[in-house]
């Protein structure tokens, strides 16, 4: 189905980007672990110059590598979450679904905890004070990148089953269309937020970007909101539940207070 392909366009790229960034994040950690464990003075000398046994110089190296590690983790998770908004995991297994949605957090744990453990176990490369500082930084980076990587509102294709069930229970079969699989067909437009049961609904009748598909496809396209006009019966009943679905638009919306809060200059 051509439209469906169009709908999922970019998902593979987003997932690939996420995986590459996560691999780079773990590579950073591996580099940090190497630096922590290596006794190869030639390598240390190449990296740090004459002061290769200078605990502070080494500390800055660790901090730099781990900050880059955190950035890779966070950007990777953002791409991953965006891909899941467009095409959520179809797994009905709650554990699999959880790990899929929160994969970014798991990567953060993998990308920081082993280094943290090795650091706690001990190193002769850093003095006690530098070691303590680095441990605090590792902990902060782990917590910060994990918090940024959590999907706080994962989308589930199961949401579409609720909407379909509601349509079937509140409208008679001659009020909606179905495709060859028996899935209810709904309509939406490129820039609208709603799905429409009626292809001729006056909100979309004249739109040149009108598309149709299943309810699941509409939700995946970010059109989780049933139309006020042609789906009003569902709208009333299921509003709370539908409000919890995160439309795609939420991800791209600018913060509400992005402008208008200019700090007052002190009076002369
Ligand atoms: Zn409508």
Describe this structure in words.
It contains 11 helices and 5 strands. The strands form 2 sheets. A 3-stranded antiparallel beta sheet has the order 1-2-4. A two-stranded parallel sheet has the order 3-5. Strand 1 and strand 2 form a beta hairpin. The relative contact order is 0.11. The C terminus is likely disordered. Helix 2 runs parallel beside helix 6 and helix 8 packs antiparallel against helix 10. It has 2 domains: 148 residues, no CATH class; 90 residues, no CATH class. Helices cover 59% and strands 6% of the residues. It has 268 residues and is mainly α. The site of zinc ion has 7 residues, from loops.
Tell me about the biggest sheet?
3 strands, antiparallel
Total individual domains:
2
Give the overall form.
Answer: elongated
Strand order, largest beta sheet: 1-2-4
Report low-confidence residues grouped into runs of 5 or more: 245-268
Helix content: 55-70%
Total strands: the figure is 5
Quick structural gist:
The protein has 268 residues and is mainly α. It contains eleven helices and five strands, in the order H-H-H-H-H-H-H-H-E-E-E-E-H-E-H-H. The radius of gyration is 25 Å and the shape is elongated.
List keywords for this structure.
5 strands, elongated, 2 domains, 268 residues, binds zinc ion, three-stranded antiparallel sheet, mainly alpha, 11 helices, two-stranded parallel sheet, disordered C terminus
């Amino acid at each position: 189905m051509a439209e469906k392909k169009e709908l999922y366009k970019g998902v593979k790229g987003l997932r690939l980007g996420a995986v590459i960034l996560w691999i780079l994040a773990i590579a950073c950690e591996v580099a940090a672990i190497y630096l922590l464990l290596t006794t190869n003075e030639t390598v240390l000398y190449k990296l740090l110059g004459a002061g290769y046994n200078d605990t502070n110089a080494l500390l800055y190296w660790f901090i730099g590598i781990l900050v880059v590690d955190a950035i890779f983790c966070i950007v990777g998770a953002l791409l991953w979450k965006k891909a899941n908004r467009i095409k959520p995991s179809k797994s009905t297994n709650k554990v699999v679904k959880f790990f899929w949605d929160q994969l970014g957090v798991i990567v953060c744990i993998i990308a920081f905890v082993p280094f943290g453990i090795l650091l706690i176990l001990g190193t002769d490369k850093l003095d006690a004070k530098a070691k303590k500082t680095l441990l605090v930084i590792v902990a902060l980076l782990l917590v910060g990148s994990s918090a940024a990587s959590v999907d706080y509102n994962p989308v589930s294709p199961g949401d579409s089953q609720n909407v379909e069930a509601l349509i079937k229970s509140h409208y008679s079969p001659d009020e909606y269309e179905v495709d060859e699989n028996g899935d209810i067909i709904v309509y939406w437009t490129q820039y609208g937020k709603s799905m429409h049961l009626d292809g001729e609904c006056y909100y979309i009748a004249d739109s040149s970007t009108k598309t149709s598909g299943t309810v699941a496809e509409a939700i995946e396209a970010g059109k989780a909101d049933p139309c006020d006009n042609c789906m009003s019966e569902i709208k009333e009943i299921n509003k709370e539940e539908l409000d919890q679905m995160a439309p795609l638009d939420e991800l791209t919306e600018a913060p509400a207070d992005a402008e208008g809060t200019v700090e007052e200059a002190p009076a002369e």
